[in-house]
Each structure stands twice: as C-alpha cells, then as structure tokens.
C-alpha cells in the first residue's frame, strides 16, 4: 500500500498544538513503557467512555470532555481542501444519538471539505479500544465513486523522519470505493513503527480486509505484550507484532484518539456535489486492561443501563 504520510504529521501536530503541547518535545521516558510489558506489569488504571450524547458541536460539555474539532489546513487527503467544523454533528442515526462526520466534494480542491474529531491529550496507549461505527458504501447525496477514507485511529506526533518513538494504530481505514492500489471496498488495519515524510518511506504491518463493511460494526483493538490485535464484530482480523523486516510495530508512547473522514484524491469524482457520512454510536477505552470484544461491549451496556453518557476515570 503506497501512500503519503505527510498528512499524519500535520494532523497529529495540529491536535497537540491546539492544547499547547510542544510536538518536538516528545514524551518523557517514564511515559514510554517497554513494548514487551505485560498487562500484569501495568495495572489497570481507569477507562474512558463517551456515548456522544451532545446537543451540537458547540455543546460546552463536548469541549469540556477534551474533544476538539479540527479546522487547521493541511493533510490528510486533497491538498487545498477545508477541514470544516460544520461537518461535525450529533444527529440520531438509526435510533441512536451519534457522532457524525461528513465530507463533501464537487471534484475541485476548493470545493472539497473533510472532517476530524479528536481527544486532545496523549493518554491512550496499552489496553482495549472499542467503538460502534457506521461505514458508508455510498454517499448521502450525489454521485458515487469517490475515493473516500473513513477512519478510527490513534496517533502520536512524528518529531522528525524515522522518529524511533512514533506510534500509530489505524484501527480502521475503510475505503468503500478502493484506493491505494485497491479497486473495490477494502478496510485497512495498520500498525506503524515509523516513517519518512518526503519522499515517503515507512515501516508498518498492514492487513487488508477486502469486502464491504457498510452499516454498523463494532471495532475493537487490544494492545498488550507486544501484540496489537484488531477485531471486527468479535472476529479477529489481524494480530500485528513486527513488520516484514522484523521491526516492532507495537506503540512506543501514548497517543491521541481520533476519527476523521477525507478524500484520498478526486480521481473518482464524476460531477456535481457528493456528500459522505460516517457515524459513531459510542467509544470506549480501558487503559492497561485487555478485554474480549464481548466484554468491552458489556462494559458499554453497563454504562448505558445506568444512564451514564460519559465516564473518564483514567488515572495514569
């Protein structure tokens, strides 16, 4: 899979800059546990849950809970496109209050908008990640065919080319119309070691699931003991430890938590304006605790049964 990674540098630095973090300073060694550390050596220390029960993108509770919406220029995707706050909303989708990200294009860079939402702080590392996510194979309106990418991922800044502690987990990068050498619907699950931005060269392990993922799916990733495991609807789809050259792809530092939707390029556009949507019903993270997909979903159900729409007890 050949692709530019310049966008990840732009995106991650923009997130941390928004909260005053210095991307060049990295993360203290004390915050970078050994990649072979087992869950027993790192005690569970809380969880994060959000049911996305907000009135709008300007709801004060949204930003108070450390979420932000990207509006800064730059990658990923189409150069010259706009990252628009108006593409973020909280509608009821199939009966559930949800986070929705839209992306639009009329086939020109100036007429293209992307969307991104992120947790601002680098505090997501080992443990279990889960989200209920609705992928789309066709646009809400307009012509089909765009090379759109629908994502859920974690990331740290790239301080410089081949940064030895760079960390990124693409828990899903879904391309309903293909792209990056694929000609049909493909979901990529990718664990990164590091990369060089320009000219691009990177070290990572990637698994491609070549089938439609349209509709609601539960995505889970576990990070523990040198293994990054990815699940879709309870089925293990990838278990990453090293790249093809034996370099670890296990994260080496804490990361931010992100959703975005963007166009890889405009080659598939056939005219008019197309509007794409992806939605997330909820997100959950258990720090330093490995859960099965069913156990993670049970935790979410417990919050909901108790009437809780948000929880943040991360203490380390």
From TrEMBL:
Swiss-Prot/TrEMBL GO biological process terms: carbohydrate metabolic process
Domain annotation GH16: ranges: 27-294
Region forming the signal peptide: 1-31
SUPFAM superfamilies the record matches: Concanavalin A-like lectins/glucanases (SSF49899)
Keyword Membrane: no
GO terms of molecular function: hydrolase activity, hydrolyzing O-glycosyl compounds
InterPro entries documented for this protein: Beta-glucanase-like (IPR000757), ConA-like_dom_sf (IPR013320)
Origin superkingdom: Bacteria
Presence of keyword Signal: yes
Residue ranges of the TM segments: none
Pfam families documented for this protein: Glyco_hydro_16 (PF00722)
Gene3D superfamilies found in the cross-reference section: 2.60.120.200
Record keywords: Signal
Name of the protein this chain belongs to: GH16 domain-containing protein
Source organism (scientific name): Kribbella flavida (strain DSM 17836 / JCM 10339 / NBRC 14399)
Source species taxonomy: Bacteria, Bacillati, Actinomycetota, Actinomycetes, Propionibacteriales
């Amino acid at each position: 899979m050949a692709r530019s990674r310049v966008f990840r540098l732009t995106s991650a630095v923009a997130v941390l800059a928004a909260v005053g973090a210095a991307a060049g300073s990295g993360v203290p060694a004390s915050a970078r546990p050994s990649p072979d550390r087992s869950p027993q050596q790192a005690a569970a220390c809380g969880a994060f849950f959000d049911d996305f029960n907000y009135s709008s993108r300007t709801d004060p509770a949204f930003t108070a809970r450390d979420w932000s919406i990207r509006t800064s220029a730059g990658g990923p995707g189409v150069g010259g496109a706009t990252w628009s706050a108006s593409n973020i909303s909280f509608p009821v989708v199939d009966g559930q209050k949800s986070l929705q990200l839209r992306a639009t294009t009329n086939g020109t860079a100036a007429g293209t908008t992307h969307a991104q939402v992120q947790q601002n702080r680098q505090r997501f590392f080992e443990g279990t990640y889960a989200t209920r996510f609705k992928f789309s194979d066709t646009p809400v309106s307009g012509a089909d065919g765009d090379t759109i990418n629908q994502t859920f991922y974690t990331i740290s800044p790239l301080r410089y080319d081949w940064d030895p502690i760079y960390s990124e987990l693409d828990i899903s990068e879904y391309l309903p119309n293909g792209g990056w050498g694929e000609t049909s619907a493909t979901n990529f699950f990718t664990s990164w070691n590091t990369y060089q931005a320009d000219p691009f060269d990177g070290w990572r392990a990637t698994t491609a699931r070549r089938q439609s993922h349209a509709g609601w799916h539960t995505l889970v990733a576990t990070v523990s003991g040198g293994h990054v495991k990815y699940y879709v609807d309870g089925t293990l789809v990838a278990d990453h430890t090293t790249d093809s050259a034996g370099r670890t792809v296990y994260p080496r530092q804490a990361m931010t938590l992100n959703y975005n939707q963007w166009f890889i390029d405009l080659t598939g556009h056939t005219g008019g304006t197309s509007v794409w949507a992806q939605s997330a019903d909820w997100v959950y993270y258990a720090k330093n605790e490995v859960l099965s997909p069913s156990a993670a979903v049970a935790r979410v159900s417990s919050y909901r049964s108790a009437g809780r729409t948000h929880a943040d007890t991360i203490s380390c």
